[in-house]
Design goal:
This protein has seven helices and no strands. The protein is mainly alpha-helical. It has a single domain, classed as Globins (Globin-like, Orthogonal Bundle), CATH 1.10.490. The longest helix is centred in the first third of the chain and has 22 residues. The structure holds protoporphyrin IX containing FE (HEM). The site of protoporphyrin IX containing FE has 21 residues, from helix 2, helix 4, helix 5 and helix 7.
Length: 148
């Protein structure tokens, strides 16, 4: 795994100030749909330039992220039950995440969302709000600023 060696950068914007995604999303997708969405995200990450940051077993990694999204979207608190308090920024600190890595991650999520309405019944009208959440939350995962 690719471990960080550089100082930690803290985005000046501070922790994300963004509305949670709509509570209508979870009932439409169900737990299974959320796991499928995250499995698709990780398939795209697997093919992306940020692949080396992730562990060998992308499927298991996708399940950890899915547990988080289930609870974020108002489903059962799977992440806390299995892995403890989310503390997402802290959990991402071992990985050097810069603005470029964030863009790649977001682009992979966009691809996963593209056919999500047909594939898993993601309510189309809630995609923009979900996307806004990802955009704000992912900014807070950025912890590295390359020297310019
Ligand atoms: C900014 C771009 C991001 C990058 C490059 C990134 C990268 C990573 C990496 C390398 C891991 C470790 C893989 C593992 O061992 O599971 C990880 C884990 C995880 N990420 Fe991200 N991430 C990003 C943003 C986000 C965002 C915005 C969220 C949620 C809204 C998120 C949720 C998670 C979760 C839940 C885990 C599993 C944590 C654990 O249990 O250890 N990530 N991410």
């Amino acid at each position: 795994m690719h471990q960080r060696q550089s100082p930690i950068y803290t985005p000046p914007s501070g922790p994300p100030q963004v509305d949670r995604p709509s509570e209508e999303i979870f009932p439409a997708l169900g737990q299974k749909g959320v796991f499928e969405l995250l499995a698709t995200l990780y398939e795209h990450l697997e093919q992306s330039p940020v692949r080396p940051m992730f562990p060998e077993d992308m499927h298991t990694a996708s399940e950890r992220s899915a547990a988080f999204f289930v609870q974020l979207l108002g489903g059962p608190p799977l992440f806390n039950q299995h892995y403890g308090p989310p503390r997402m920024r802290q959990r991402h600190l071992p990985f050097e995440i810069d603005a470029a890595a964030r863009e790649i991650w977001l682009a992979c999520f966009d691809k996963a969302l593209e056919d999500a309405p047909q594939r898993i019944g993601f309510p189309e009208q809630h995609i923009p709000g979900f996307r806004r959440f990802l955009e704000a939350f992912s900014e807070w995962m950025v912890n590295h600023k390359p020297a310019s």
